[in-house]
Specification:
The complex is a heterodimer of chains A (227) and B (282). Helix content of chain A is 33%, strand content 30%. Chain A has 227 residues and is α/β, with parallel strands linked by helices. In chain A, the strands form two sheets. Chain A has a six-stranded mixed sheet with strand order 6-7-8-3-9-10, with helices on both faces. Chain A has a four-stranded antiparallel sheet with strand order 2-1-4-5, covered by helices on one side. In chain A, strand 7, helix 7 and strand 8 form a beta-alpha-beta unit. Chain B has a domain of 188 residues. Chain B is built from eleven helices and two strands. Chain B has a two-stranded antiparallel sheet with strand order 1-2. The chains are: A alpha/beta (227), B mainly alpha (282).
Chain lengths: 227, 282
């Protein structure tokens, strides 16, 4: 498998306060990196550093082996890095349709939109009138239909019903089958275990676990989180 | 109500809406308290003076206006405003300084004295038996058409959607690929250019001088306070109420009472309804 995205000894956080320290990971084409950790472990900060919402204070971020660590988020999106944030994940004052099509879109977006009837039926509704779980799904679908090569998903299943989580897993597998890389942060370990090829565990901003999923089990990860 | 009074009302409401449009974009969307807004109206009003002093034909007034105001706005944005998005109080102080700088620059070039320009469309048009200046009729029609086009564009275009997205959630807007810096820059320049256009439209009907912008800045703020930020409907309502009150009370009594009524109305709104009549982000 060929390398798509890599972070090397990445350090960064908010203003002068570092939250993530010396974290390294790689994502190959057609693979999923699953990131887990307790609340405050630095998972979302790592996602924001990867997408360009935050700038690193040390280390490297590489896409196709080219450094992109100093590029702002919109430039990284142009290079093919999509992002679904954990909070404020949709534009409340725009319609569902406007939310979906605001970025540049890949081929056949209907394949993903039609899979979630609650999105497909409500294209003209304001996103701000949807429930928290529905907004999560809308943001997830938006990140799936964009013409990106790497998708960063920050807790997509939070507040989402189990049948829709299963649909999310199918969508992720389809994007991966088409060659995209996925970086996903999840508290739902069953969901994470069903899609991840490699796990990265964080605690206090540092790597505490990095292993291929074939060598990991859900119970092993639960034991690490209980430490 | 006589036809002349109705047309006068339409003139005052239309020109105020055009003046306030730029401020509505820059203050309402970009959160920049642009105290130099009136100076962009002033530069627009000076563009016929610039055109004639360069010996250019009158039809070049519009391109000269857009070019001059656009260039000044671009320099101001790149040099100062681009560092101040989301910092309302800082932007107020910085643009206040810029307004002084622009006034002094115009004074240096054209002097303190009044300038006047001739009407590009002379004469009157007879409507229902009464005559009304043809130039004002043409400007009212252009403003109405311009606002109709803007409302259509605002509801249809991807750029307008992206501006709404940027205003609501700049971080997510960047993540979906919107270059918020560039979008803000051109929204600022567009807002300043509409102020310049308002100045150009008003130029033949007013005395042009370096201090003229202040009055337009204040009335624009009043219109936004009353109408509310973030929507064309609010802008129209605000301009209608402010310009309407001033025109009607000014015509019934005198201009001082008209101004006093506008001031009292704005204070009342700030006190009782600080978001204005129609505040919306769409």
């Amino acid at each position: 498998m060929t390398l798509l995205f890599e972070i090397k000894e990445l350090t960064g956080g908010y203003f002068d306060t570092n939250v993530v320290f010396d974290v390294s990971a790689r994502i190959d084409h057609g693979t999923v990196l699953g990131i887990f950790g307790r609340n405050g472990a630095g998972k979302s900060t790592l996602a924001k550093l990867a997408n360009g919402s935050l700038q690193p204070s040390g280390g490297q971020i590489l896409l196709d082996e080219r450094p992109i660590g100093r590029l702002p988020a919109h430039r990284r999106r142009e290079l093919g890095i999509g992002f679904m944030p954990q909070d404020s994940m949709v534009f409340d004052n725009l319609s569902v349709r406007e939310n979906l099509y605001i970025g540049s879109i890949g081929e056949s977006p209907e394949l993903f939109i039609d899979r979630f009837p609650l999105i497909a039926r409500r294209l003209d509704q304001l996103a701000g009138t949807m429930s928290g779980g529905e907004r999560k799904i809308l943001s997830f679908v938006r990140s799936m239909i964009e013409d990106t090569r790497l998708v960063i998903l920050d807790e997509p299943s939070e507040g989402v019903q189990s049948e829709n989580i299963d649909l999310m897993a199918c969508c992720v597998k389809e994007r991966v089958a088409s060659g995209a890389g996925i970086m996903i942060i999840e508290q739902n370990l069953r969901f994470l275990a069903s899609i991840a090829d490699h796990f990265l565990g964080l605690d206090a901003g540092r790597t505490i676990y990095s292993e291929a999923s074939s060598k990991s089990s859900e119970s092993e990860i639960r034991a690490i989180l209980a430490l | 109500m006589s036809l002349a009074l109705i047309l006068n009302l339409a003139w005052h409401v239309g020109t105020l809406a055009l003046v306030a449009l730029g401020l509505a974009i820059i203050f309402g969307k970009l959160r920049i308290m642009n105290m130099a807004h009136g100076e962009f109206v002033m530069i627009g009003a000076y563009s016929p003076v610039i055109t004639s002093s360069m010996g250019l034909p009158a039809w070049l007034q519009l391109p000269v206006c857009l070019l001059t105001v656009g260039l000044v706005a671009l320099v101001v944005e790149r040099a100062v405003v681009c560092r101040l998005y989301g910092r309302m109080f800082d932007s107020l102080l910085a643009t206040w300084g810029i307004s002084i700088l622009l006034r002094e620059a115009i004074e240096l070039i054209f002097g303190r004295g009044y300038q006047s320009v001739s009407l590009p469309i002379p004469g009157t048009i007879q409507i229902l038996g009464s005559g009304y200046p043809a130039y004002r009729i043409a400007i009212i029609a252009c403003i109405a058409l311009g606002f109709a086009l803007l409302a259509w564009w605002n509801s249809r275009s991807m750029v307008a959607t992206r501006i709404k997205a940027m205003v609501e959630n700049p971080g997510l807007a960047q993540a979906v690929g919107i270059d918020t810096g560039r979008l803000s820059r051109w929204a600022f320049v567009f807002g300043c250019c509409t102020a310049g256009l308002a100045g150009l439209a008003l130029a033949p009907t007013i005395r042009i001088e370096p201090m003229m912008g202040l009055d337009y800045l204040i009335k624009s703020f009043f219109a936004l306070v009353v109408g509310g930020l973030g929507s064309l409907e609010g802008l129209g309502l605000g301009a209608g109420i402010i310009a309407g009150t001033q025109s009607l009370i000014g015509a019934a009594f005198n201009q001082t009472y008209g101004y006093l009524a506008v001031l009292s109305l704005s204070i009342l709104f700030l006190w009782l309804k600080p978001d204005g009549i129609h505040s919306a982000s769409r």
